[in-house]
Write a structure and sequence with these properties.
The protein is mostly helical. The protein contains 15 helices and no strands. The longest helix is centred in the last third of the chain and has 35 residues. The two termini are about 15 Å apart.
Length: about 290
C-alpha cells in the first residue's frame, strides 16, 4: 500500500478534524485580517473611502508603485527566461552555483537586502563618493527602490520555468536545430509555446511581489513623502498618522491586488500543471 492509499484510508473523523483545522487556521490568519482591512476602509462610508484616494501623497504612491512594477517585471522576465533556458538546456561550468544563487533573495531577509544596497550605493558606501561626484542619487531615490525590488523579485520567473523546461527536455529543440532553425527561431517557435503559461505564472507572482514589497523598499526609500513612498509605505505612514480610514483604504487596494493575483494564479496554475503533465513531470498537489 503506497502512502497516498494509506492517507485516504485514515478514519473519516480524522480527515474531518484535519480539514477543520486547516480551514480554521486559514479563517483566522487570512480571512479575518482581510475582512478587517475592508471593514476599516469602509468604516466611514463609501464616500470617505473614495475620498481617501484623492490625497496627493496616496496618488503619488499608487503611481510610483505602478512605475516600479512596470520597470521591474519586464527586466526580471528577461532575466528569468534567459537564466532558465541556459540552466535547463545547456551544460556549463558553474551551472549549479548559478541555480543556487538564483534562490538568494529567498534566503536573505528583505531588510538585509535593502541594507546591502545602502552599503553599496549610500553616501558612505563603496560607490557613494563616485556617485556624489557625478551627482547621481540612488539611495533614498527611485533608482534605489527599483534596484531593491528587482533584487527581491528576480527568482520568481526563473524558479517557475527551470523545472518546467527541464521536464520538457531538449528533444524538440534538437529536432528543430537539425532542420536548420537558428537559436531565435527555436526559442520563438518551439520553446516559448511550451512555456508560455509558466512565463505568465511567473509574471503574475513577480508583479504581486513588486507591488507589495515593503522591507527592502523601506530601507532604501527613506520614506520621503511624495518622492519615495510606494503604496505599502504609504499605508504605514497613514497608520502612524492615525489616519486609519485612509490607511485601510490604501491597504484595501493591495488586498484587492492580492485577490486578483490569487484568482489569476489558480487559473494559470491549471495550465502549468497540464503542461507539466504533458511533459511527463509532476504537477502541483501531487
Amino acid at each position: 500500500m503506497d502512502s497516498k492509499q494509506a492517507a485516504v484510508s485514515e478514519p473519516r473523523w480524522l480527515q474531518w478534524v484535519l480539514i477543520a483545522a486547516a480551514v480554521g487556521f486559514l479563517f483566522l490568519l487570512l480571512f479575518v485580517p482581510l475582512i478587517t482591512v475592508f471593514a476599516g476602509a469602509l468604516d466611514q462610508g463609501i464616500k470617505a473611502y473614495l475620498h481617501s484616494f484623492a490625497d496627493p501623497d496616496t496618488l503619488f504612491a499608487i503611481r510610483l508603485t505602478l512605475l516600479i512594477a512596470v520597470i521591474a517585471v519586464p527586466l526580471n522576465l528577461t532575466f528569468g527566461v534567459a537564466a532558465s533556458w541556459a540552466i535547463a538546456k545547456f551544460d556549463f561550468p558553474g551551472k549549479q552555483l548559478l541555480t543556487t544563487l538564483i534562490d538568494l533573495p529567498f534566503a536573505v531577509s528583505p531588510v538585509v537586502s535593502g541594507l546591502i544596497f545602502v552599503l553599496l550605493f549610500g553616501k558612505n558606501g563603496w560607490f557613494g563618493p563616485w556617485l556624489q561626484a557625478h551627482d547621481i542619487k540612488i539611495i533614498f531615490a527611485v533608482p534605489g527602490i527599483v534596484l531593491a525590488t528587482i533584487f527581491i523579485t528576480f527568482p520568481m520567473v526563473a524558479r517557475e520555468l527551470i523545472p518546467l523546461m527541464e521536464e520538457q527536455g531538449k528533444e524538440e529543440e534538437e529536432a528543430a536545430r537539425t532542420l536548420g532553425a537558428n537559436g531565435w527561431r527555436i526559442f520563438w517557435h518551439v520553446t516559448l509555446p511550451n512555456i508560455k503559461w509558466g512565463v505568465l505564472y511567473g509574471v503574475i507572482l513577480t508583479n504581486a511581489r513588486a507591488m507589495g514589497e515593503f522591507g527592502a523598499v523601506s530601507v532604501v526609500s527613506g520614506h520621503i513623502r511624495g518622492l519615495t513612498t510606494t503604496l505599502p509605505l504609504q499605508v504605514e505612514i497613514l497608520y502612524n498618522d492615525y489616519s486609519y480610514v485612509q490607511a485601510f483604504a490604501a491597504a484595501s487596494l493591495l488586498c484587492f491586488l492580492a485577490l486578483i493575483t490569487l484568482a489569476a494564479k489558480a487559473i494559470v496554475q491549471k495550465r502549468v500543471d497540464r503542461a507539466r503533465k504533458n511533459a511527463g513531470g509532476p504537477v502541483s498537489g501531487t
